[in-house]
Design brief:
- Residues 40-68 are annotated as: Disordered.
- The chain has 564 residues and is an alpha/beta fold.
- It has 18 helices and 19 strands.
- The protein has a seven-stranded mixed beta sheet with strand order 7-8-6-3-4-5-19, with helices on both faces. A five-stranded antiparallel beta sheet has the order 9-12-16-15-18, with no helix packed on it.
- Helix 10 packs across helix 11 (293-304).
- The longest helix is centred in the N-terminal third of the chain and has 36 residues, at 67-102.
- It is globular and about 105 Å long.
Length: 564
């Protein structure tokens, strides 16, 4: 009977519906818990009198977790998931930044940064196939200069950047937005930024919203081409003026340096500041197109070469210098520091509102001053006599006249004092002509491309869109002992507006009864911008009339220092 009862007992266990004939106590004795737990929800039937209890990992009865414990567990899970997703996003950003930066390590022309290739002879970065294979075999691709850079080094004007809103003047291979995108990784890098501004075109070359490009990285502001300022200019006054202008633009910088890449003025101070603030980070040279980045790097390496053998070696393969906007087409890595970190020459940021964006590539050299500026003032007895209008100008001043600055700028004098003087600071290649305003349109149509250049040549004149933009300016002033304001033309230079010229001032003048507002109309090509700014103190007279602003202790502490 025992075996039979045992078999009779074992058989019902194989069928779940027979479990109802046995007590739970008996089942606990003869059943073993399965190592794999599986929960299922079943609707209990009316015939069910007992059930099999499955071990619960969270406990049962008094050991079961309360609703509060379950809520806390879920919250902990959510917080952990948030942390994981945050780390994933950070790693993706780091990988994106690294990927963009790694692109600069691809074999590129050391003159312009364009990737080397053997496909299109007209495109930047082209190298003869035999030369490419030979250099590649010997691992010397970093010493290769592309065909375009060779032509640029011999004075040819070869454009490669389009999308500026102006006239292309040549075949375009890359857009200005694509060049700007190559700098986007700087927001995620730990770097030292050296920002360059052209003193002749301070407002036009000053990059707006720079923090969008470089993030929170520290910035050293370098003002280039100070050797072009008029003779006897006090650089202390210019340095204070630059700091004031930078503060108004709400850009926080470590320091301001006035430099000349040609005479090496101020370059040693920049080297010292870079060595002090670099701290093992990479150094990026940023600026708008044609601000002088490549020339500045050449001067920087020349100064550093005396003490740093790495900089001396890097001088052999330095970036190409050219008057063509967009000479540099990609980041150029330069091993200039012996103690770690790299120096990068970057593509110039193309600003559509500068004159270089609208003129033909062959006319670009005319926009670049090559020698010290010398202001041309009007009224001028020589110009008046040439045009046969000496009596009229002397009696009524410049009222009713228009002044042409080459074929790029026209200034209509609407309402000024008889003693008001305009002084033009810019490239000597642009001649200045004064005509009555009622004959200005006829004069422009007749002399464009002849007396009024650029543009030059019949073909360029036919494609020229003219001076489409007109900006009305109201120049207010309180003192007559100093210029009232500067009218800065983006990409060209500036016009100093002097309410009462010293040379024209009369002893019987009643200055208190004079008007305190001058009216001008400035015509420029579209989309060139015109800026009205405080006068830049240049020349011997600038040091006499310039006034330093009184600073509070807090302003003195936070204000960046200037060096030259």
């Amino acid at each position: 009977m025992a075996p039979k009862s045992v078999s009779a007992f074992l058989f019902p266990l194989s069928t779940p519906h027979n479990l109802t004939y046995f007590t739970p106590k008996f089942l606990r004795i003869y059943t073993k818990p399965s190592p794999i737990l599986c929960k299922s929800q079943q609707t209990p039937t009316a015939t069910t009198h007992s059930s099999v209890s499955t071990p619960d990992p969270d406990g049962t009865g008094a050991a079961a977790p309360s609703r509060g414990d379950q809520f806390l567990e879920r919250q902990k899970s959510f917080e952990a998931a948030k942390l994981v997703m945050k780390e994933v996003k950070k790693s993706k950003r780091r990988e994106k930044g690294k990927a963009l930066k790694l692109n600069t390590a691809v074999a590129s022309c050391y003159g312009c940064g364009a990737p080397l290739h053997t496909l299109d002879p007209d495109a930047p970065g082209f190298v003869d196939p035999d030369t490419y294979e030979l250099k590649k075999r010997h691992r010397q691709l970093r010493t290769v200069l592309c065909g375009r850079c060779r032509l640029l080094s011999h004075g040819h004007m070869i454009t490669a950047v389009g999308g500026n809103g102006g006239y292309s003047g040549g075949k375009q291979f890359v857009s200005a937005d694509e060049l700007r995108e190559k700098l986007s990784h700087l927001r995620h890098e730990k770097a030292l930024i050296v920002k360059l501004v052209d003193v002749v075109d301070f407002n036009g070359s000053f990059l707006a919203r720079l923090r969008d490009l470089v993030g929170a990285n520290p910035i050293i502001l370098v003002v280039t081409k100070v050797d072009l300022l008029p003779r006897d200019t006090d650089l202390n006054c210019v340095g204070d003026w630059v700091v004031e202008a930078t503060t108004k633009k709400k850009l926080s910088v470590l320091s301001v340096h006035l430099t000349s890449s040609k005479s090496l003025v101020g370059i040693a101070g920049v080297v010292s500041e870079i060595q002090k603030e670099k701290k093992g980070r990479d150094v990026y040279i940023l600026g708008s197109a044609n601000v002088g980045k490549s020339a500045f790097i050449s001067a920087l390496l020349k100064t550093m070469a005396h003490r740093d053998p790495a900089a001396a070696a890097a001088r052999k393969y330095k970036p190409i210098q050219s008057a063509v906007p967009g000479t540099t087409l990609g980041p150029i890595q330069i091993d200039a520091f012996l103690g770690g970190g790299k120096l990068y020459d970057t593509p110039g940021v193309h600003l559509h509102h500068r004159q270089a964006a609208v003129v033909h590539s062959e006319d670009l050299p005319a926009l670049a001053p090559r020698s010290r500026l010398k202001g041309q003032s009007f009224p001028n007895s020589k110009v008046a006599s040439e045009n046969g209008m000496a009596v009229k100008i002397q009696s009524n001043g410049l009222n009713g006249f228009s002044v042409f600055w080459g074929g790029l700028v026209r200034v209509d004098i609407l309402k000024v004092l008889p003693e008001t003087c305009l002084t033009f600071y810019g490239p000597k290649a642009l001649q200045i002509h004064v005509v009555p305003t009622d004959k200005a349109d006829e004069f422009y149509q007749k002399e464009l491309g002849v007396l009024l250049t650029p543009p030059t040549g019949k073909e360029r004149v036919q494609d020229w869109r003219g001076l489409e933009l007109e900006q009305q300016l109201q120049v207010k002033f309180e003192e007559v002992e100093r210029p009232a304001s500067d009218v800065a033309i983006s990409g060209l230079g500036w016009i100093a507006v002097e309410p009462v010229s010293k040379s024209l001032r009369r002893s019987d003048m009643n200055l208190e009864e004079t008007i305190k507002e001058l009216h001008l109309a400035v015509h420029v090509p579209k989309p060139v911008e015109v800026f009205l700014r405080p006068p830049l103190p240049v020349g011997k007279a600038g040091a006499e009339w310039y006034q330093y602003r009184e600073l509070t202790e807090k302003e003195e502490e936070l204000r960046p220092k200037w060096h030259y």
